[in-house]
Amino acid sequence: MIQVAVLGYGTVGSGVVEVIEKNKDMVDKKAGEELSVKYILDLRDFPGDPYESKVVHDFGQIISDEEIKIICETMGGVGAAYEFTRQALAAGKSVCTSNKELVAAHGPELIALAKENKCNYLFEASVGGGIPIIRPLNYSLTAERIEAITGILNGTTNYILSKMENEGADFDVVLKRAQEKGYAERNPEADVEGHDACRKIAILSSLMLGKNVDYRQIYTEGITKITSRDFEYAKKMNMSIKLLALSKEMGEETLAMVAPFMIEESHPLHMVNGVFNAVFVKGNMLGDSMYYGRGAGKLPTASAVVSDVIDCARHLGKVIMCFWDAQEAKMMCIDEVERKFFFRVKAGSEEKVRALFGDIEEIRLADVAEETGFVTRIMKEKEFAGLYGQIADIALGERIRLE
Ligand code: HSE
Fold first, then answer.
1. I need a surface site. Which of 11, 43, 51, 261 has the fewest CB within 10 A?
2. Burial of 202 (0-12, 13-18, 19+ CB in 10 A)
């Protein structure tokens, strides 16, 4: 029997216990041995919970127990979670986590520590919830040179944008409703400002390159400035607006960024709606492949953690290779990136826009006389920013990039 401990009995942690118990036959068979949850670490007590007797409050009890071979870290954050993970790996206990903040901040160090101690640090649940994307990048697409990854990596923002699109409602209204229904956190900043997607694309980019992509170097913009009017223009152009997290090889450098983009109907990510996530991977031999599913939620995320527990159980005493070195990847400044941009101005200022931007497409909405939309030619970010800065007095809302 292989004994497991779960750190943090919140949504994901309780899901992990549930998956191990509900799918016991399948889980044990695939692990090659019976798995049993011996401890659940939490600050709280859970009177009446079926696993109440397994709850402990002292990590020391877990770390000193020789029987514990695998630990699920579902606490989140980079404080105690980091400390406990280091202690566990140093003691030769494998750790499986859903904690993208910790993986993005300390991935290479923890992977190396696991390797030194002949155990594993696995993080399938850290990106895309239940969607298998880490394992395909690590084990399946190993013959590929991955050239680009583009993802919808945050369920909350995709839900909000889908609702805005379908109901014509504004951001604040939809966010409030999403919070009431429990689809958005009470403090939604990490999601709506793009920080969550930033951590996730940092992890995927690092696996794509085998080098470390520092999440602090990733240009990140959220969705708070997107309006229902922007969606009216997008619809007129047969486009949608999605928060994309992308990473692309650009010669010697890598471009990684998170921002709202207008994408065409033909784009594979156009049909990804609601809380769903998807990751679109471009390999130099395979070409395009896409991974789609539930990017968040108790059981999908827990299922991914348990898939890592099974992998650890199958590899006790052996290291599962993961190519993510501490060497920093060379990141490209977005100033030099070329693309089209959409923006809106007050009616009556079209001449000024045309004079400044030259070749530019005008988009008019029926029944909207007070403003005009424009789509630029392909131009560098810095060139666009320079020109757009000159029309700050007539611009309405925020510019949006086209993908
Ligand atoms: N808040 C995240 C999301 C949860 O909405 O996608 C999964 O990381």
1. 43
2. buried
Mean pLDDT, rounded, of the chain: 97
- Ligand 1 pocket by C-beta < 6 Å: which residues? 129, 154-156, 191, 196, 295-296
List, for residues 63-84, the tens digit of each pLDDT value. Answer: 999 999 999 999 999 999 999 9
CA of 297 to the centre of ligand 1 (A): 8
The predicted-structure confidence for 233-253, as pLDDT tens digits, reads as follows 999 999 999 999 999 999 999
**Cα 118 to ligand 1 centre (Å):** 31
Contact 275, 159 (CB under 8 A): yes
The Cα 242–Cα 63 span in angstroms is 43
Average pLDDT over residues 300-321: 97
User: Is 225 designated active site?
Assistant: no
Mean of the pLDDT values across residues 271-290? 97
Q: How far apart are CA 403 and CA 395, in angstroms?
A: 21
Work out which ligand 1 atom sits closest to the CA atom of 127.
8
The residue whose CA is least distant from atom 8 of ligand 1 is: 296
For a pocket test of ligand 1, which of 174, 196, 273 has the largest count of ligand atoms closer than 8 A to its C-beta? Answer: 196
> The whole model's pTM is what?
0.97
**Catalytic-role residue among 54, 93, 200, 242:** 200
Strand blocks (E) in 88-206: 94-97, 121-122, 146-152
- pLDDT given at position 182: 83
Which atom number of ligand 1 is nearest to the Cα of residue 159? 5
Q: Are 23 and 29 in contact (CB under 8 A)?
A: no
Residue closest to 248 by CA, chosen among 217, 221, 282? 282
